[in-house]
């Protein structure tokens, strides 16, 4: 047999094998993981206002990126900043990451969560924690993690925390420690 016949036979076998492989793989769609990971849409460098059931602004959100999950219609947010209105100015809540459920009734903040009362508030207040749940319609923030709350002259820490962001009433759930730092008299 000549080398041309051998080469032709090898090419024929390769063509048949390639055709058979292509035929067997034709009905396989995209992998499921790729389909579920895609977002409906992505927003970048945005600001959005959410209204409560009464038509009044309940929260304003600013972030560099938001992605909407097509499966459960939830929102994944990078470096969210939630601005919550309230008596005496409201709150600024920031974190490394955020998540909001499909109807906007629950937001979760994770990583370096910072809560700061608005500038000009009569009693400047801050709190720091690792994780926080936010219920905008109820003006409630809560966590089971350790929290540090600071106000002029006082610092409190505890595990578990609930705060009404409208009325600025706070409740620690356990392991509470308080340190008073009175201002010096002059």
UniProtKB/TrEMBL annotation:
It comes from the Bacteria. Keywords: Cell inner membrane, Cell membrane, Membrane, Transmembrane, Transmembrane helix. It is a single-pass membrane protein. InterPro entries: LipoPS_assembly_LptC-rel (IPR010664), LPS_export_LptC (IPR052363), LptC (IPR026265). It is found in: Cell inner membrane. PANTHER family: LIPOPOLYSACCHARIDE EXPORT SYSTEM PROTEIN LPTC. Belongs to the LptC family. Involved in the assembly of lipopolysaccharide (LPS). Required for the translocation of LPS from the inner membrane to the outer membrane. Facilitates the transfer of LPS from the inner membrane to the periplasmic protein LptA. Could be a docking site for LptA. Component of the lipopolysaccharide transport and assembly complex. Interacts with LptA and the LptBFG transporter complex. This is Lipopolysaccharide export system protein LptC. It comes from Pseudoxanthomonas kaohsiungensis. The gene is lptC.
